[in-house]
Amino acid sequence: MKLARLAACSCADSLRLPIVPGLSPTSARSIRLQLGPVTVDPELTATADDAYSLTVDADHELITLTGPTSSGVFYAAQTVVNLAFPDGHLPTMTVRDWPRFV
């Protein structure tokens, strides 16, 4: 989870939001990192360790990054960095993604 946390730190710096562990009670204005199941394409027979889900609640400035492994959380953090507008703004959204080939 160290690499995922490092990626999230980059994300947190640019968005000016603190990082909280998934089991911590969260309030507005934070980035939550958590390990957990991510539903992928039902036709996919293998498990996708690099899958992730990210949810942005722009009203509460809460971002939740979930992956079945730390790799998934890492990729979720990278996606947040890529999706953020230059001013750090993110619209409300939910993204689920996984590798095409596993």
Describe this structure in words.
Strands 1-2-4-3-5 form a five-stranded mixed β-sheet, covered by helices on one side. It has a single domain, classed as Chitobiase, domain 2 (2-Layer Sandwich). 27% of the residues lie in helices and 25% in strands. 26% of the residues are buried. With 102 residues, it is an alpha/beta fold. It contains two helices and five strands; from the N terminus they run H-E-E-E-E-H-E. Helix 1 packs parallel to helix 2.
Labels describing this entry:
about 100 residues, alpha/beta, Chitobiase, domain 2, 2 helices, single chain, five-stranded mixed sheet
What's the arrangement of secondary structure elements?
Layout: H1 2-15, E1 19-21, E2 30-35, E3 52-57, E4 62-67, H2 70-83, E5 93-97
Parallel strand pairs: 1-2, 2-4
Antiparallel strand pairs: 3-4, 3-5
Helix pairs in contact: 1-2
How widely separated are the two ends? Answer: 21 Å
Mean pLDDT: 79
CATH class category name? Alpha Beta
User: What level of helicity do the residues show?
Assistant: 25-40%
- As an assembly, this protein is single chain
DSSP, total strands? 5
Instruction: Calculate Rg over CA atoms.
Output: 13 Å
Could you tell me the CATH topology label. Chitobiase, domain 2
CATH superfamily: Chitobiase/beta-hexosaminidase domain 2-like
Largest sheet at a glance? 5 strands, mixed
Helix/strand-derived category reads alpha/beta
Number of domains as seen in the coordinates:
1
What is the annotated CATH architecture? Answer: 2-Layer Sandwich
Number of distinct helices: 2
Percentage of residues in strands: 25-35%
Global outline: globular
Ranges where pLDDT stays below 50 over 5 or more residues in a row are none
SSE string: HEEEEHE
